[in-house]
Structure to design on (432 residues):
């Protein structure tokens, strides 16, 4: 790190014993990203406002569990990230997301580009499951000429909601229901009744972390085995900044 | 390994496409190396239909979609020290599990059979009946992952798993030094 950056940076704190510099107002996750330390996350996405709902980015800051994407970094703070305890908790969270919806990787056209799947790879989700599969019956909405929604795969991260509201200025998506019944829904009877367009940021391939928002006629243009997370673990581009 | 007796393995394909067994053959010429370590008991590869003796490792492809699958799986659990679920169908139901929830129906099995044999647009079924011969195993209400029927010791993910991963895992298990997969080798597709 150059001296210029150090002057600009307000303070330092540590993540897993590594000293990290941060500016006032940065969250733990933002400071970690800049420092080349990857903290797993699903509901957080670069360019969208932080939400702190998936809890996969949970770290221990001063001994307390906090969501790294929303928690402001503080001078002198001691943050734990890659501990056995936190990794197990994150793996359990991701496993429960797999069980809450219908995540059939072999039939999903997002397989290989899916952040949920990539997070399972990174967190070694390979042991026999201890949870029952909930197998909910959820709708597929293929009414729109260019976009399809398969809500079986939705993990309710809300990235499409924030992208549509804040970037597109539209509000195509929103939350309905409470607790385990909270779902992402469209602002109309179906997607064709909304002003969603395939060029919206909310519809772009990087906003939906799973295979719920599907751009039609793209499908398997890139074959299985040559996709984003076939080329490297999720988060490796952040970790490479450190090297 | 020279002084030790060879390990015995058994394999079975339940509600799967046989792709995982094909993937076992993807170990190619290392099959010779593997055969120096193991004898194959009950398996489609040997065409043995019953266990001849207790096995060290049982490898299961596919989940359980009918009562015969459940019987076979219980038989494997009884006769094998270590049971491995091979591939996504054995692990979480896989493609056959599409009939569980994706049909958006109160009676997904009925709707699945109706579409496959009666109402489907491209069906030529002169009897207009769903096959119900008494010799056919009874279908279960849902397709179940193996871990919901018996205890599973190890899972090898993939659809199908790579031959390299299968070979490495088996060799390490036989040597008693399997401590999980290399992260960049884990695939669910």
């Amino acid at each position: 790190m150059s001296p210029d950056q150090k002057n600009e940076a307000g303070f330092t704190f540590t993540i897993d014993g590594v000293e990290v510099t941060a500016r006032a107002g940065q969250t733990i996750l933002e400071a970690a990203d800049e420092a080349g330390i990857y903290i797993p996350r699903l509901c957080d996405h670069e360019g969208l406002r932080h939400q702190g709902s998936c809890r996969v980015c949970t770290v221990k800051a001063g001994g307390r569990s906090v969501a790294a994407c929303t928690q402001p970094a503080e001078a002198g703070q001691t943050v734990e990230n890659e501990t056995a305890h936190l990794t197990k908790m994150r793996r359990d969270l991701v496993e429960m997301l797999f069980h809450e919806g219908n995540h059939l990787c072999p039939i999903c056209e997002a397989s290989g580009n899916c952040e949920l799947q990539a997070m399972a790879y990174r967190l070694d989700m390979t042991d026999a499951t201890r949870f029952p599969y909930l197998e909910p019956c959820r709708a597929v909405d293929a009414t729109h000429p260019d976009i399809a929604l398969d809500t079986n795969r939705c993990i309710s991260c809300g990235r499409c909601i924030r992208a549509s509201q804040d970037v597109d200025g539209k509000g195509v998506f929103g939350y309905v229901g409470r607790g385990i019944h909270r779902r992402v829904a469209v602002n109309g009877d179906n997607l064709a009744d909304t002003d969603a367009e395939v060029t919206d940021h909310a519809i772009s391939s990087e906003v939906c972390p799973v295979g719920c928002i599907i751009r039609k006629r793209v499908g398997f243009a890139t074959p299985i085995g040559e996709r984003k997370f076939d080329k490297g673990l999720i988060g490796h581009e952040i970790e490479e900044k450190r090297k | 390994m020279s002084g030790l007796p060879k390990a015995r393995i058994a394999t079975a394909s339940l509600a799967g496409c046989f792709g995982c067994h094909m993937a076992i053959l993807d170990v190619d010429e290392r099959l010779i190396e593997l055969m120096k370590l193991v004898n194959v008991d009950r398996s489609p590869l040997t065409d043995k239909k019953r266990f001849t003796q207790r096995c060290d490792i049982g490898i299961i492809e596919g989940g359980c979609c009918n009562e015969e699958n459940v019987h076979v799986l219980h038989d494997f659990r009884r006769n094998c020290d270590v049971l491995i679920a091979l591939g996504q169908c054995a692990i979480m139901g896989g493609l056959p599990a599409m009939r569980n929830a994706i049909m958006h129906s109160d009676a997904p099995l009925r709707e699945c059979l109706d579409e496959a044999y009666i109402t489907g647009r491209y069906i030529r079924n002169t009897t207009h009946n769903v096959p119900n011969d008494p010799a056919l195993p009874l279908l279960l209400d849902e397709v179940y992952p193996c871990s919901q029927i018996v205890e599973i010791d190890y899972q090898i993910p993939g659809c199908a798993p790579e031959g390299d991963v299968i070979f490495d895992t088996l060799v390490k298990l036989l040597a008693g030094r399997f401590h999980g997969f290399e992260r960049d080798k884990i695939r669910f597709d």
